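hey m, so remember when u said the tokens were messed up on ur end? i reran from scratch. heres the input so u can diff it against urs
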Amino acid sequence: MTSADALAIADHWRALPSGSRYSRFGHILPDATLERFAEDLDFDTDLFCGAFSPEGDLVALVQAAPEWDGAWELSFSVLPRVQRKGLARRLGDRILRMLAAQGARRVRMCCLASNQAMAQLAAALGFALQRESTFIRGECELVPPNVRGLRPGQRERLRGI
């Protein structure tokens, strides 16, 4: 996804009900704040993967943001009408492959302890989870892709292209 998708991201975040907004951002944010967040996204540093409905609506989104220590943090949001269909898992798998291909070695996730769906997703993606009071934190070590012996065209798939 690119900066041309910022409006789609804002629309996606605005379509989240209050409980989903709280799970994603830790606060129930008003639409105007979500619009500002979308306008301020840094597409030069952050990576985004999304799933669109046949009507063109962004229904699921994962964002990978670099942290100060070289690790990356993942954040997910999925509209309720498409939850439990495997979209977040597929997007998570894809963004982890993209990060590994670009040289990332550590990825983190954090969610509210009450967000069991996110904790299950993190575990399924290979994150080692630890409960800390009201949060569940996870970390995953990435393995660089082995491109030796691949056929033409397979290297691009490893890069997430």
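this time it looks ok to me. The two ends are 11 Å apart (CA to CA). if urs says something different then somethings off w ur setup not the seq
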